[in-house]
Write a structure and sequence with these properties.
With 209 residues, the protein is of the alpha/beta class. The protein has one domain: Metallo-dependent phosphatases (Purple Acid Phosphatase, chain A, domain 2). Helix content is 34%, strand content 17%. It has 8 helices and 10 strands. Strands 3-2-1-9-10 form a 5-stranded mixed β-sheet, covered by helices on one side. Helix 3 crosses helix 4 and helix 5 crosses helix 6. The longest helix has 14 residues. The radius of gyration is 16 Å and the shape is globular. The two termini are 30 Å apart. The mean pLDDT is 98. One of its GO terms (cellular component) is cytoplasm. Pfam families: Metallophos. InterPro entries: Ap4A_hydrolase (IPR050126), Calcineurin-like_PHP (IPR004843), Metallo-depent_PP-like (IPR029052).
């Protein structure tokens, strides 16, 4: 019988030191399962180091990697989309380029990883997603952009899934706990003193960097 923990975290934003602090406190074992919910890059000083670290965690336990708004914007910018180029370069992409050495090198080093990121992940009790879902629309008919960018329309309205949704993208001073959803983005990478937060799903315990 697997007595491991199901643990999720999100919005690391290049903050390798905070990530390492959090992983050290979590003391991950092979029985655990980690769900990383996107926004690994931009803003913080070591996006490349963060991606290397979360990839390396798959040597220890089962890991699932979701796409966040910043990975989505990066991939669209690389394809030449002018709107997402603007988002990338004006919302922390400069620090990512500095971390990798050049814009082109981001894809050379981790392009395969970014292309492999999932839009969401679900277990028997939980549904993990970066930003959320548009209420009232079946999952198969959702606009993918909402998975990475939706805010208030999702946060402040009930969803119709039979599972508790764990999400990030919109930061709060402390985890936002609602009956049908929990937001664990506590502003890491956006505010200097903000912590990186993980949730241990079974016990609903929050661990901070």
């Amino acid at each position: 019988m697997n007595n491991g923990r199901l643990i999720a975290m999100t919005d690391i934003h290049g903050e390798l030191a905070k990530l390492d602090s959090l992983l050290n406190k979590l003391n991950i074992t092979p029985a655990d399962e980690l769900v990383f919910m996107g926004d690994y890059i931009d803003r913080g000083p070591d996006s490349k180091g963060v991606v290397n670290r979360i990839i390396s965690m798959s040597d220890i336990c089962k890991c699932t990697y979701l796409k966040g708004s910043h990975e989505y914007a990066y991939l669209k910018a690389r394809e030449g989309d002018e709107y997402y180029k603007y988002l990338f370069w004006n919302y922390g992409g400069v620090q990512t380029v500095e971390s990798y050495g050049s814009f082109e090198n981001i894809y050379n080093v981790h392009g395969e990883f970014f292309e492999s990121l999932l839009p969401y992940y679900e277990t028997d009790k939980y549904f993990f997603i970066h930003a959320g879902l548009r209420p009232g629309i079946p999952l198969e008919k959702q606009d993918e952009v909402d998975f990475y960018y939706i805010r208030g329309e999702f946060i402040y309205h009930k969803h119709n899934l039979p599972k508790k949704i764990i999400f990030g993208h919109t930061e709060f001073d402390k985890p936002l706990v609602q009956e049908d959803k929990i937001c664990i983005d506590t502003g890491c990478g956006k505010y200097k003193n903000a912590v990186l937060t993980a949730i241990i799903c079974g016990s609903k315990e929050f661990i901070h960097s």
